Amino acid sequence: MNFKIAVLSGDGIGPEVIQESVKVLKAIAESYKHEFQFNYASVGAIAIDETGNPLPDATLDVCKDATAVLFGAIGDPKYDNDPSAKVRPEQGLLKLRKELGLFANIRPVTAYNSLLDKSPLKKEIIQGTDMVIYRELTGGIYFGEKKLSEDGKTASDLCEYSQFEIERIAHLAFKAAQTRKNKVTLVDKANVLESSRLWRKVVSEVAKSYPKVTLDFLFVDNAAMQMILNPSQFDVILTENMFGDIISDEGSVIGGSIGLLASASVGDGVALFEPIHGSYPQAKGKNIANPIASILSAAMMLDHFGLSDEAEAVRQAVNKTIDKGIVTKDLNGEAFVTTTNIGDIIAGTI
Amino acid sequence: MNFKIAVLSGDGIGPEVIQESVKVLKAIAESYKHEFQFNYASVGAIAIDETGNPLPDATLDVCKDATAVLFGAIGDPKYDNDPSAKVRPEQGLLKLRKELGLFANIRPVTAYNSLLDKSPLKKEIIQGTDMVIYRELTGGIYFGEKKLSEDGKTASDLCEYSQFEIERIAHLAFKAAQTRKNKVTLVDKANVLESSRLWRKVVSEVAKSYPKVTLDFLFVDNAAMQMILNPSQFDVILTENMFGDIISDEGSVIGGSIGLLASASVGDGVALFEPIHGSYPQAKGKNIANPIASILSAAMMLDHFGLSDEAEAVRQAVNKTIDKGIVTKDLNGEAFVTTTNIGDIIAGTI
Ligand SMILES: CC(C)[C@H](C(=O)O)[C@@H](O)C(=O)O
Ligand SMILES: CC(C)[C@H](C(=O)O)[C@@H](O)C(=O)O
């Protein structure tokens, strides 16, 4: 089959990890006789440097024209500590999510058996963890009105949600639960926030269409504890944008390395696949970044294409490699292989 | 010396843990020849049941008339899953914070050596952890305008901050850092939120008055990871209300039990002392709750009164008791003492 893939490498280690997932996709194309067309375009700090715009129109066109977007990472420290910067790399990603209608970010969190001892959490705590987080991605405080008073002394952000925005992602979460352990946990702060109370109301309504799935509720502060105390209690976690950002990054340490975690962002049309980790500028150019999160994101993309055998082949190649103890520096500071090495090995296994 | 203490036991296990900290305070009063006058008043769900108001005027008067407030916990499940409830226990606490001008919530997080193995985190990760979280408590999304559209289909909450609100807590955090490890970490989401950018700007300004203290910044999603990956890197964490709620509850698992963690809320006048844990209704009336968080909150209150020897005596009595392995059920499911037992033992040690 024939697929057009928009490749947005971005900043920091983005290009390095993307190079390896493209390598793996090429190996899949060859073995399974598919044709993947890779269309590269720039985003983030590098796009600002080139064009002044973190999401140039040309890039957006490449994405809209594609079957899916393979995304690296964005962000550069030179913007982070400059509160007055008008243009920021992150705006590129946020705009892309909005423009492509990517309203659901899906992040699986699983404990790899061979890596159980890499986690800061005890083995007996993380064993058996197998959850997936559904984070709303195009609403809430990320996209609500932002204000800075004329005198610069007051600033505000509006967190707003509509029934429609909540319903559509809730349906995805319940459908996912049906193929898993039949449990959805809504994370909110309904004891304080009006928007959270709307979430609770709407999600409770949606739940009625999925009688086999149990729905429970957790305040976000309690959820932040439960993720560490007992992560294996969760099946599908459903939550709004900001809480999802925090909880899913927290969850990312369960598996022992954020360098292993993939995500899919889906919505109205074109979907986007990206590793959880950011641009990690300190590691840039050192050939030490872990490309597995990006490779597993590519596997999620294959699933999305309906190529589940191919996706499984990628996952198995990754598992085999990890099981042999072949890992990057983040997972073993003493005996490690480089970013390009591990990409070669995984591609070779396919 | 003579002190008036408002005692607001609240809901769930609140009254049980408060009974023990009052016991301990009475032991202190006797040993050190102080006079503590305890004025009880109701708050939370129980106050709603009694008066329809989670913070009756009479309770507020008792608090305003006191030197400090000793607070239990509030919250009752019957309100949590009812999005349409107009009156909620939490409103009592939020209003109290606002009325008393308690703009800073201070939560120390330390790893007890004798309890290192109780934490879900590995010993080597938590060893040496000694941080204190300064959470802004009377601003942000908790208190910004809340709206529900007429048709009930859209809801919003406004997160708003002013320079003044940020400055006053920033000064407290920097002053604390000067007596500790000279480091302040501001947790925000400045790559997305306008209000976070104001925090970054104002806190950077305040930092100039404390040249010995280093200031660094962490996005809240990254902070949620770093709290688990490497908690001993932190000294003073400074953050806004909602992020502080999440991060400090997450931090509470480091010590092995939320049942050990005290907090102080300070501001313009009267201060308030409360355990981190909530009302934990499942444990109510079973005499199994851990009163140590409340007892250590009472110790923070003694410090606040300027009675540091007395505060130290309470802490030592707690440490001795824990070191002997005398703990409640949350810390040892097999060999445990009751809530009232451990209160007696700690009071007896003084
Ligand atoms: C880069 C940033 C804007 C982004 C977010 O907060 O959504 C990132 O943290 C993520 O989770 O994808
Ligand atoms: C009960 C609730 C409103 C409160 C809060 O969110 O502030 C609690 O979680 C806390 O942290 O003291």
UniProtKB/TrEMBL annotation, chains A, B:
Cofactor note: Binds 1 Mg(2+) or Mn(2+) ion per subunit.
Annotated site (Important for catalysis): Y142, K189
Matches recorded under Pfam families: Iso_dh
PROSITE patterns found in the cross-reference section: IDH_IMDH (PS00470)
Keyword Manganese appears in the UniProt entry: yes
GO molecular-function term, one example from the UniProt record: NAD binding
InterPro entries with a match to the protein in the record: IsoCit/isopropylmalate_DH_CS (IPR019818), IsoPropMal-DH-like_dom (IPR024084), Isopropylmalate_DH (IPR004429)
Subunit structure: Homodimer.
Protein name: 3-isopropylmalate dehydrogenase
Organism of origin: Flavobacterium sediminis
Gene assigned in the entry: leuB
